[in-house]
Design brief:
About 25% of the residues lie in helices and about 25% in strands. By secondary structure, the protein is an alpha+beta fold. The longest helix is centred in the N-terminal third of the chain and has 29 residues, at about 200-225. It is globular and about 75 Å long.
Length: about 750
């Protein structure tokens, strides 16, 4: 039995008598006020961006804002970074606990950035404000945003060398920064004293305060117009509505378990691989996310704590399960999360957490979304929301020192938000789709970066053959390169992942997107080439976009985590990130679509032949013959199933598909079973179908270009032993048993919930 202390959220128990009650206000008033609350969130964001000059906040939109009930539940949020909104209720709980012996006053505001008090990681600073109406505490407003620098051992405050929280920079437990409308100058001076960028951080925090003031003023206006009780009732109804709709959606899905394991390479000290094991148990209207089998916390800076964990789960669940549902506490009320303390996903002090967002938190979101997609794929109505992983990595490049104007300078390039989208059952992934944690991505344009930073950009580009191959193809990967400009030196560090583990997983036989790749070309003659109007680029190869033979210089390939190093004029920083995961077996892709991909430059002619079995211009019959030969070759090179199919299994009546070609069926005895579309029966629906599939481990020479694997990992395809169709392509620990990623306990007929 799970210990109560292992629950981060939950257990989730529905009070259906309450959830099904009619609205306490008329529907028109409900709709008007809920949209007015959303408008307040939008105006909060505008106020922050109007004050901020940070390339991270104003340029990249790495922030979010929200309104909460008086007891700290999320009622309405902005559409920026979902991570932040999911974590802010945890922050607010700590504010209330730490100030339990004091009364909150009108005009107070509280600042927090300690990950052990709810912050996602310490560069993400929050300011929370209690909101009063006629002397009564009625709500809270909050805003969180990433800061360019909060002190510590490295520019940008994310230090590869950190092994404990005290080394990472200023970390504030809940502190009162505004007291009854007056700024606490002692707290302000402490913050400004710690950051390397006091002007920029000061403007950001001023924007936070302005954002909360806007929320206060607009909410007050609403209460004066409609009455406080009406507004508060709508906030409660919003949460109740979202919980009811989420639970109703869950009831339309079959009961059982789905599972995905995600992997994070390098902890800043050692190039080890850490596992995030997400098992989702769906029972009726309950969804349990169990991470108990994840790796222990790391000695380096990649861990996350409760706030990041909750925010990351929210980021993986809300965009998929909550499609069409207002994102608020109601969705969180519908799920429970189990993560024992001391794991990499729920670390205990004093573990370092500087890379929580772009490390463990990112992996939690993507792994959760991948598992949720498997569950949704079993529903005819919900399958459209199933997809391969979108934007599997975040490569955060930190730079600092002195800029071209002689001023203190610091920046975090987050161009990697130009992520490749995951494919879905009905379409290819987008080339520029943002990411799950940021549904409204903002990527600073190159000119903005060059004005703010001492950098000269050489390119920003998409690359062919980088999205995961599949019946539907993943979106392409992108990358950029730049060189210091106007300065004698810069300091630079890189925090990334997915360099030796592809995490942009495909679904149901689709390939993952390519791995991240970063290098520094030292002492090149790029400035001379530029002066002569020449730039030796070859943007058809994600592994080497710059022609080193012509450019000259010495290439240094970077690991996933790169400690701070100096850059000088002539040095070039070049990095690319992962494309989106594919969906379905590539040999099922329409030949005309492959030909169009080749013509448009998305896919090379060589890849069209080797992976898709298509030569543009060939007849359909010739393509099908080639594909049949490739399926036979797959089986000839594969290992036989670990367990054969029982003799008493016969083809049943199809109920639904698990992905593109794996069928859930019911036999004559009313037993559920897994079959291939060709009619071959794998096993019963409670067994691990992969143990009844042929297995093909892709070795070094067979890996797609751009995919690297850590020595402890392998890429394994699971095939129908009768027809050779690929139903899954898994990134897994070498030698581990096939992941039991689907177990159906009860089928739910779609008609039951019409």
């Amino acid at each position: 039995m799970t210990d109560k202390s292992d629950y981060v959220l939950g257990p989730a128990v529905a009070d259906w008598d309450t959830l099904k009650k009619p609205l306490s206000v008329d529907p028109i008033t409900f709709e008007i006020i809920r949209h007015k609350l959303a408008a307040i969130n939008e105006e909060q964001a505008l106020a922050l961006k109007a004050v901020s000059v940070s390339p991270i906040v104003a340029g990249a939109g790495d922030f979010n804002n929200a309104l909460f009930t008086a007891d700290g539940r999320l009622a309405s949020m902005g559409p920026q970074v979902v991570f932040h909104s999911g974590a802010m209720p945890v922050i607010l709980r700590h504010v209330m606990e730490d100030f339990a012996d004091e009364e909150f006053a009108d005009g107070d505001m509280y600042i927090v950035n300690d990950p052990y008090k709810g912050a996602v990681h310490h560069p993400d600073v929050s300011i929370m404000a209690p909101l009063f109406f006629k002397g009564r505490l009625v709500a809270w407003a909050g805003v969180t945003a990433h800061q360019v620098d909060m002190g510590g051992m490295a520019v940008g405050s994310v230090s590869v060398r950190a092994t404990e929280k005290q080394q990472e920079g200023l970390m504030m437990p809940p502190m009162r920064i505004i007291e009854k409308g007056k700024l606490r100058k002692d707290v302000w001076r402490m913050i400004m004293n710690m950051t390397r960028q006091p002007q920029m951080v000061g403007l950001d925090l001023s924007g936070f305060i302005a954002s909360n003031v806007v929320a206060r003023d607009r909410l007050t206006e609403l209460m004066e117009q409609y009455g406080a009780d009406t507004i508060l009732t709508v906030m409660e109804e919003l949460i109740r509505y979202s919980e009811r709709k989420t639970r109703e959606h869950l009831q339309t899905l079959p009961d059982g378990e789905v599972r995905t394991c995600g992997y994070l390479d390098h902890d800043g000290r050692e190039n080890k691989v850490y596992r995030t094991d997400v098992k989702i148990i769906k029972e009726g209207d309950r969804l349990t996310i169990d991470m108990s089998a994840s790796s222990p916390q790391a000695s380096g800076y990649i861990n996350c704590t409760e706030g990041c964990l909750v925010g990351a789960v929210f980021g993986g669940v809300a965009p998929l399960l909550g499609s069409g549902i207002p994102w608020n506490q109601g969705i969180l009320n519908s799920i429970e999360v189990i993560a024992p303390r001391g794991l990499i996903c729920n670390a205990v002090a004093p573990a370092a957490t500087g890379a929580a967002t772009i490390g463990q938190g990112w992996i939690i979101t993507l792994t959760t979304a991948h598992a949720i997609s498997k569950l949704l794929a079993l529903s005819e109505d919900s399958r459209k929301h199933s997809q391969g992983v979108t934007h599997g990595t975040m490569a955060a490049l930190f730079t600092g020192d002195t800029n071209q104007h002689g001023e203190p300078f610091g920046n975090q390039l987050i161009d990697a938000q130009i992520g490749g989208g995951g494919a879905n059952p009905f379409g290819d992934g987008l080339d520029q789709t943002g990411c799950f944690v940021s549904p409204r991505p903002h990527i600073p344009n190159i000119e903005y970066n060059e004005i703010h930073s001492p950098m000269l950009f050489l390119y920003r580009s998409f690359f062919p053959d980088t999205g995961g191959d599949g019946e539907q193809r993943g979106g392409r990967a992108a990358g950029t390169a730049w060189t210091p400009h106007g300065v004698e030196r810069l300091r630079c560090s890189l925090t990334s992942h997915g360099v030796e583990v592809p995490i942009s997983y495909g679904q149901f036989g689709g390939y993952p997107g390519v791995c991240s790749n970063a290098m520094i070309i030292h002492e090149s003659d790029v400035r001379d080439k530029f002066a002569r109007g020449r730039m030796p680029l070859k943007l058809d190869d994600v592994r080497a976009p710059i022609d080193l033979d012509e450019l000259g210089g010495r290439a240094q390939v970077l690991e996933a985590k790169q400690d701070e190093l100096p850059l000088y004029p002539g040095d070039i920083v070049q990095y690319t990130w992962q494309g989106g995961g594919g969906y379905g077996d590539p040999l099922q892709r329409a030949p005309d679509a492959v030909a169009a991909d080749v013509a448009s430059g998305y896919v090379s002619a060589r890849r069209a032949l080797d992976v898709y079995g298509v030569v543009p211009g060939e007849s359909p019959a010739a393509t099908e013959l080639r594909r049949e030969r490739m399926r036979r070759e797959r089986l000839a090179n594969a290992s036989p199933p670990l367990h054969g199919t029982a003799n008493d299994y016969e083809t049943g009546a199809a109920l639904s598909r698990f992905g593109a070609g794996l069928v859930l069926a019911r036999d004559e005895r009313e037993q559920l079973q897994f079959e291939c579309e060709c009619g071959h029966v794998f096993c019963g629906a409670g067994e691990n179908w992969k143990e009844h599939a042929a297995r093909h481990s892709l070795e070094e020479g067979e890996l797609p270009p751009g995919i690297r694997l850590h020595e402890t990992m392998e890429l394994v395809g699971y095939l129908c032993p009768a027809c050779g169709r690929q139903h899954s392509l898994d990134v897994k620990e070498r030698g581990a048993a096939p992941l039991h990623d689907l177990k159906i306990a009860r089928w739910v007929s779609p008609e039951k919930h019409l």
